[in-house]
Design brief:
The structure holds two protein chains of two kinds.
Chain A lengths: L1 H22 L2 E7 L1 H5 L14 E3 L3 E7 L11 H15 L5 E6 L10 H12 L3 E15 L11 H4 L3 E15 L4 E16 L4 H37 L3 E3 L5 E4 L4 H20 L1
Parallel strand pairs in A: 2-8, 3-4, 3-5
Antiparallel strand pairs in A: 1-5, 5-6, 6-7
Helix pairs in contact in A: 3-6
Chain B lengths: L1 H4 L1 E2 H5 L5 H4 L7 H20 L4 H26 L3 E5 L2 H15 L5 H22 L13 E3 L1 H14 L11
Helix pairs in contact in B: 4-5, 4-6, 5-6, 5-8, 6-8, 7-8
The chains are: A alpha/beta, B mainly alpha.
Chain lengths: 276, 173
């Protein structure tokens, strides 16, 4: 009987410790690295030949997330598109930026390098591509309240698990033809929270999305500031040349003389009507 | 929204055919739109008033705008290959001004006809000055926008093409 009691206690201890093991000290990482995508398996630093980068406003821009390292890495595609739409909308009103095309991640090949970037740029008819790399780490920890999970009800009610989601987004804008990095801007966020064991996955997923959204909120003004700096920089930098695109914007405009002309016509018509 | 409506050469050639019509509705500024639509409205009223009947006038007007808008846009594709974007109702306005002048002509007295001829000469001179790049300062277009004189010329041609199809009002007078 004594042996049976000892066995039961050992079994209970093992089960409880495994519960604790399930949720503590775990971290989840999502990453899409710019360097891995553009310079895959590079052992030496890329050789850059000095070239003059020619920009022809209104510049056609593509915007895309760098493909992740593995399948299912990072946000779902719909969430990515929503984030990219927010970035696009905040830059669509600049006269020197033409169309901004959102490039779905399916078109980006992992470790595709500039070859893949050029293919995608040709396909979407863009001259400049803004690549968003991301690095999100989620730390999961248990707090003292997790002791109450053994009551089973506690696993549904008590917030004994904590998460800490740290996100870093980096937008790097490349000229496709010259492969030159024009400018870059970061956006970071930290989202903390707690959940019960039963609701942890759902809350943690929402926190990941919130982390990306908060990082984009920070990224947009940073990117805007860097764009303004870049515009000033290229005025004095001999490595950049701004050329006019062949073609122009046309407008058909009536002026005050035309208004006067039509007023005279109206006067003639009125006179004719009066004459019957 | 306006970007979806404007005449955009690439988008048009890619199949966004609605721009053949909607390019004439898009404008660069409120003042640009206001002056264009004021001329359109005044000329349209004259065309309708001097038609055989108001119903006939409206029918003619709708037909002219419905066919004239794509005629002008297609003409821009051919005549102005470097014009990538175009906005403005002025070409439609030019078409309606010619239609209004054509409606006035048969009933006009000698002195009125002289005035109409003078107005026609002014219109042609204005388009010629635009082609020479001499009148940008008069227009209310933004500084980076070129006056598309080809559109105005096409508007005048479209208006002239409608004149043989006008029903005379003499039968009602």
């Amino acid at each position: 009987m004594r042996i049976l009691n000892i066995l039961l206690i050992a079994l209970a201890a093992a089960l409880l410790s495994s519960c604790a093991y399930m949720t503590s000290g775990r971290s989840v990482k999502q990453t899409g690295s710019m360097v891995d995508y553009l310079y895959p398996d590079a052992k030496d630093a890329p050789a850059m030949t000095p070239t003059v980068t020619r920009l022809r406003p209104p510049v056609r821009v593509g915007i895309a997330f760098v493909p992740g390292a593995g399948w299912g890495n990072g946000l779902p595609e719909t969430a990515r598109m929503k984030l990219l739409e927010r970035v696009r909308d905040s830059f669509s009103k600049h006269p020197y930026i033409g169309k901004i095309e959102i490039i779905p991640t399916q078109y980006m090949r992992a470790k595709g390098g500039f070859t893949n970037l050029e293919q995608v740029a040709r396909m979407f008819d863009v001259e400049v591509v803004a690549l968003l790399s991301y690095d999100q780490v989620q730390f999961n920890d248990s707090n003292a309240l997790s002791m109450l999970y053994w009551t089973i009800i506690g696993a549904y009610v008590v917030h004994g698990d904590q998460y800490d989601v740290q996100t870093m987004l980096d937008a790097s804008v490349f000229d496709v033809q010259s492969h030159k990095l024009l400018f870059r801007a970061p956006g970071t966020s930290q989202v903390k929270g707690s959940a019960s064991m039963a609701g942890f996955s759902e809350k943690a997923r929402a926190a990941q999305t919130e982390g990306y959204n908060a990082a984009v909120d920070q990224l947009i003004p940073n990117l805007q500031a860097e764009l303004d700096n870049f515009r000033e920089r290229i005025k004095h930098d001999a490595n950049y040349q701004v050329e006019n695109k062949q073609g122009y914007k046309g407008g058909g405009a009536m002026d005050w003389a035309s208004l006067a002309l039509v007023a005279l016509l109206a006067g003639l018509a009125w006179r004719l009507r009066r004459r019957g | 929204m306006v970007d979806l409506l404007e005449f955009d050469r690439r988008a048009l050639l890619a199949g966004e055919f609605w721009r053949l019509w909607t390019g004439h509705l898009a404008h660069y500024s409120a003042q640009h739109a206001l002056i264009d639509f004021a001329v359109v409205l005044a000329a349209a009223v004259i065309v309708v008033q001097l038609s055989a009947s108001p119903a006939d006038g409206m029918r003619r007007l709708l037909l002219a705008v419905g066919l004239g808008a794509p005629f002008i846009s297609l003409g821009m594709l051919l005549l102005a290959p470097h014009c990538l974007y175009y906005r403005g109702a002025s070409a439609i306005a030019a078409m309606l001004v010619v239609m209004a002048g054509g409606a006035l002509w048969p009933r006009a007295t000698r002195s009125m006809r002289a005035a109409l001829l003078l107005m026609a000469a002014t219109l042609v001179a204005k388009i010629a000055a635009e082609a020479a790049g001499a009148v940008h300062g008069w227009s209310n277009l933004p500084p980076d926008v070129v006056v598309a004189w080809q559109a105005h010329l096409l508007g005048v041609i479209a208006g002239a093409l409608t004149l043989p199809f006008r029903k005379p009002r003499l039968q009602l007078d």
